[in-house]
Specification:
Elements: E1 13-15, H1 30-34, E2 43-45, E3 48-55, E4 59-65, E5 79-85, E6 97-98, E7 103-109, H2 120-131, E8 135-138, H3 141-149, H4 155-172, E9 176-183, E10 186-196, E11 201-209, H5 218-232, E12 237-242, H6 250-253, H7 256-261, E13 267-271, E14 275-280
Parallel strand pairs: 1-13, 4-5, 11-12
Antiparallel strand pairs: 2-3, 3-4, 5-14, 6-14, 7-12, 7-13, 8-9, 9-10, 10-11
Amino acid sequence: MIKASQSRLRWANDQCPLSGSSIPSLHHTRWYAESQTDQPPPSWQIDGFTSTIFQSRFFSWYRTFSQDEPQLKSSHSLITVCEWLPRYEPLNSSGWITFGRHYTSAYANLHPDYLKDWREHALRHLKKFKRANCELRLGTREEVVKLYATSQVPKHLQVALLRLLDKHLATHLDTIDILIAEKHGQPIACHIVGNCAEAKLSEYIIGAFDPNYKHDQPMVGLIDWWYRRSLERGYTWLTFGFMESWDWGLPKTGNGYSLFKTHFGVQRMWFPQNRWKIIFNHKGLFTRP
């Protein structure tokens, strides 16, 4: 029997992007690379980039986003870990170890009649929002910080999420939209997105709402505005970011926001598993860095 708390669950359509697919991978764009806090900065390749996750004389870890097999990063470390994240399942990855879970992300394919893809549950909430006399406008970081302090977001996550927002604002401020729902002159919800013209895709970054106004459904109203604004930009995809997969029993382990995403016509994209190579350099301790 499905419990009452799970009765609103809707399954997403599962997709596995293949070579030649029109489905973009945000993680392989320069927009995404520039938002990373790598030191040194990413090294660019023809079809992607390599980030330095950690680097020392004893251990170094490099992560490459590319479709073609990357050239191994040279290192003076005793142990070098090369991680490869292909955009689509590669035709040949011999010599690489594959393990770990697939990254699954909630994607929505944009078109003018997008509301036809929404579930009845979301459509009912959109009607409630339109009757709630709320205003939609662009906001500021200061308003987001103030809203977070009294939001539904757990206290232990607030600092990390606001730090993520600051990272995006610092690297590509002109591509970030801070969408605000306001009532009686007071912000009651925010939905922050990043717009990647390179992939014609808009990404959800963080969001929050004041629990005192949850019955006005401000988050649904903001998501509808996000869809409309992205269509006006000529974008073809939206992504809500990470989404729990069903392989571990979604009703038990899926978080509330993963369930929430299923109401907006999303497809759960299964991107390839990470590939790994570990290199041991017996001269690493005796060479100059």
